[in-house]
Amino acid sequence: MLSHDSIWAAIDRLAESNSLTPSGLARRAGLDPTSFNKSKRVAADGRMRWPSTESIAKVLEATGASLDQFMGFVARDRIENRHLPSGAFPSQPSPIPLLGMAQAGAGGFFDDGGFPAGQGWDIVEFPTAPGAGGASVYALEVQGDSMKPLYRDGDVLIVEPGAQVRRGDRVVVKTREGEVMAKILARQSTRNIELQSLNPEHPTRLIDMADVEWVARIVWASQ
């Protein structure tokens, strides 16, 4: 879940990555120079003030950063400040299993819970929680252009099976017929799951839960 602190921290990191102060970033984006000042992040009555989506869109355009890069800054703050559940992300590099999305639909690569199983997995280095040994996450490599504009061919998705998923989360879903897809969870009930496509050229999918083998949350995209 996004937090007030992680969104503002991402803006600070975006400014820093462009050798700017938060005020300089606001100015470059055509905003009031005080828009991102720390004093503007909490109202006088203690209510949290959030940056508007318009402001975020303007700073991304002004810096040439992508939404995925911005969300990477958000995730980085959540890792460092432990906004994520223990074990979801690490601090020490550790090898984790890696498989291509095209191969993931074949049998023998996953157990019933959606965790890596069998042979044929490659290895990629990724930071994992101390003592976790990378057991809670694995990586899928995007193949093809069906997930543009968010994910491109060669991008690596870090997936955490067993993690709680909520509406709006990016997820990987495997059907019992062997189809593996990365989507946005629009709605889930006991009867079916509605999945919004990352690529606007692809329609929303409504799948019976009886036809779903597993759903796993995407917790990181390495690009």
TrEMBL record:
- Keywords carried by this UniProt record: DNA-binding, Transcription, Transcription regulation
Top-level lineage group: Bacteria
Question: Where in this chain does the record put each Peptidase S24/S26A/S26B/S26C domain?
Answer: 97-219
Q: Which GO terms describe its molecular function?
A: DNA binding
Fetch the Pfam families from UniProt.
Answer: Peptidase_S24
Q: Record's SUPFAM superfamilies?
A: LexA/Signal peptidase
Q: From the record, what ranges are coiled-coil?
A: none
Q: What is the name of this protein?
A: Helix-turn-helix transcriptional regulator
**What organism does the UniProt record list as the source?**
Peteryoungia ipomoeae
